[in-house]
Amino acid sequence: PVPILYCWAKMTARPFVANSYQWKFSDKQVHWCHILDSSDNSLELHESQHAVSPKTPPYRFCVAVRRLGFPQEALAIGPGSKAWVQPAHLITFLPPVTLINLLPCQLQFSLQGTSNNGEVKPGSETPLLIDTSALYVLDFYLENFPGIGSLIMQPGTSAFEARIKLSDNKSRPLYLNIKVSVRYGGSVFITVFAPYWIVNKTGLPMLFKQEGDKIESAGQYEEHELARMMAPLLFSFPERDSNLSLVARVGIGLNPEGKPRWCKHFYVQTGCTVRRLRVQPPSHDKRPEWVYIVGIDVRPGKGRYRLTTIITFSPRFQIYNQSRHKIQFSQHCFATSFQDPGAEKTFLTAHTNSSLAFHWPRLDMDQLLCMRLLDIPGSQWSGGFLIENVDSFQLSTRDSQGRARFLRVEISLYFSTYCVVISSADNFPPPFRVDNFSEVPITFYQTGV
Q: Residue 81 pLDDT more than 70?
């Protein structure tokens, strides 16, 4: 707030950059007395010259003056009038252009015809000190996308939306959306976002393309065949009214001796679905094909990312070990007491307070999960149990001496993923209680054991 003593003083402004007074005050003054109603709000472009180097381009900024919701003045105040005006105004200093990056990667930009260039971090914004009274062109490009997309801005522009085309190192196109809005009566805000993000949480290397295309979509290279991508993949359709469906496959590095096949297509509509990713074994191998089940969740982004549709691929099963034990998991057909190197390759180990994605090694065998406690000497495999149903129960595991230890198993469905949570059962009552009120001792046991 400005002290009342200085409300009617002449005000000028200058930038204060890096604790230095290198910039002069703007030649224009900040005028506010003539704004008597909210419909009179104004915005002016100011320039400050460099005090040391006159050849340095001027520092441009905007000054927006807006009258707050106070009663309207009874008399019109002219330029030479000395009538008293209620000081009920909000003065805002802001850049002429603000560039907002709503991509999950750094956005690089440059202004044609000038040395003005830079980059914007994901989810951040940067001011552009551009003369908006003349035409200017902004070029955009990304890492691994050397093909430049340009945005032409006319002076006095209004709000609009546009698409720019970028291309990757293999000349595959990627279309980004740009939303231009005008605030405070003339300050321009340019928001860059992608129509789709593809997020891979399966733990598998995966590749994607539009149904009917012959090659993978832009931004995917040899490393995507070998390992899971950590950052979201930017995706777009060339035409908004085209076939909005995708197909996916696993990378060749997952089963190098096999041939991955594209899954059945799915549409990018809000909701959940499940797909099977198949890998065909070589002709001389008689084993059945590898099959990986993944869940697909299509949702609009939240908050400022609401204009982007996020396509999330997740494992069909996610195991959380919240017990104090180190647990090993296996499909029922491989849970044997014999030394089988082939079966041991399919085992998964979860440490305390850890989680892991689970995929059935053999989808043609019984889909039952077994587990044993590695930190208990002589621990045996438990019985197999279903994990594709929402359920809650207690499971017992025994050691070589026959002592039983109970664990709590809770299975819930989160979107298209079954979450299997293993925890201690110490705070739960035992699943069965046998009270002998007779006068003779009894022996009981489970049948078939």
A: no
Which of 341, 303, 283, 322 shows the shortest CA–CA distance to 407?
Answer: 322
Q: Mean pLDDT throughout 366-392? A: 93
pLDDT tens-place string over residues 40-50: 778 888 888 88
Global pTM reads 0.84
| 116, 149 contact by CB (below 8 A) | no
pLDDT at 80 over 60: no
Structure tokens belonging to residue 396:
């017992």
Kindly indicate the confidence band of residue 79, based on its pLDDT and cuts at 50, 70 and 90.
low
- Residue 35 makes CB contacts below 8 A (sequence gap 6+) with 41, 42, 65, 66, 67, 89
